[in-house]
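Private note to self, pasted from the team thread so I don't lose it. Backbone tokens:
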């Protein structure tokens, strides 16, 4: 398949859907984004072949962002039984240059290429584009990726910090940890800060109030909008835990270039974080409370940021290859 050097195929693979687009440099070609339900395909290779057939796309590069860990160029989806490697991308797209990123790494590569109107500021602070940054995803899962500028280009490190132990600051937090550990035998950060974590927080709050009940994450957000007391209490608990954990990660990575929240749950909470005490929990670091003013926190509201990040990463590879 003949390639066009300035074009690339980019894809964002979630647990339920995969979005594919054509990028012209850093810009997604208008009308090129298509969404495919993963359950209807045997694997990513089939989706990409379908996209190429439908669009007639002939591209020099192909890069995908996968919701799962990537090791030695191979991605294993966390919530989907797919394994993805470079050979699949070559076969499906005919692209000469291919790359596979963790979905949060793709968000990190998108920084600097996201329109200002798609960034919502939660905590204002200094802006140092050359300094380290931190992308934190709160959606189906929870994870973070530090972003570093180097003489050789941008480096976005992968992690699985959502599976670390949830922070415990009080007796109530300890009761919560014991409540959620029944799911996996260990109370992880993701168990309280991912979408299903929000659902567990509601169940915990309702049980503590003597009215055991369960709601989906979407139902909880709708109940918050209706000012339902249990939902509001759950929202405040979520914002406190999120603020505390984001603050912990800020002290670990020192992202003086800014902290960027992404993911469906983070976006859903954007309008509520200030009222629910996110900033106060973020700064609640004892003698380092004042130091926390060094970090700006924004929410990425661009639903296609991972696709842009894939294109940016391919551009960096191309420049390195000369």
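Design output:
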């Amino acid at each position: 398949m003949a390639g066009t050097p300035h074009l690339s195929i980019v894809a964002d693979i979630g647990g339920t859907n995969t979005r594919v687009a054509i990028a012209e440099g850093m810009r997604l070609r208008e009308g090129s984004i298509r969404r495919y339900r993963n359950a209807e395909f045997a694997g990513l290779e089939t989706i990409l072949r379908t996209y190429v057939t439908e669009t007639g796309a002939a591209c020099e590069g192909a890069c995908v962002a996968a919701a799962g860990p990537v090791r030695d160029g191979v991605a294993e989806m966390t919530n989907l039984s797919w394994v993805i490697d470079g050979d699949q991308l070559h076969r499906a797209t005919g692209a000469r240059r291919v790359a596979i990123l963790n979905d949060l790494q793709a968000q990190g590569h998108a920084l600097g290429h996201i329109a200002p109107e798609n960034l919502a500021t939660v905590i204002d602070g200094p802006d140092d584009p050359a300094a380290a940054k931190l992308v934190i995803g709160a959606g189906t899962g929870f994870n973070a990726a530090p972003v570093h500028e180097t003489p050789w280009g941008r480096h976005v490190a992968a992690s699985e910090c959502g599976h670390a132990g949830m922070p415990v600051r009080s007796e109530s937090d300890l009761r919560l940890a014991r409540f959620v550990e029944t799911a996996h035998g260990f109370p992880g950060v993701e168990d309280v800060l991912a979408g299903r974590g929000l659902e567990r927080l509601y169940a915990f709050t309702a049980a503590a109030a003597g009215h055991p009940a369960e709601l989906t994450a979407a139902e909880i957000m709708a109940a918050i909008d209706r000012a339902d007391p249990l939902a509001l209490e759950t929202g405040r608990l979520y914002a406190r835990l999120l603020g505390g954990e984001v603050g912990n990660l800020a002290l670990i990575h020192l992202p003086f270039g800014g902290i960027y929240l992404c993911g469906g749950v983070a976006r859903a909470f954007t309008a509520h974080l200030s009222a629910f005490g996110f900033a106060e929990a973020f700064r609640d670091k004892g003698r380092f409370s004042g130091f926390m003013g060094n970090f700006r926190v924004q929410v990425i509201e661009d639903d296609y940021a991972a696709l842009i990040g894939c294109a940016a990463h391919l551009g960096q590879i191309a420049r390195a290859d000369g």
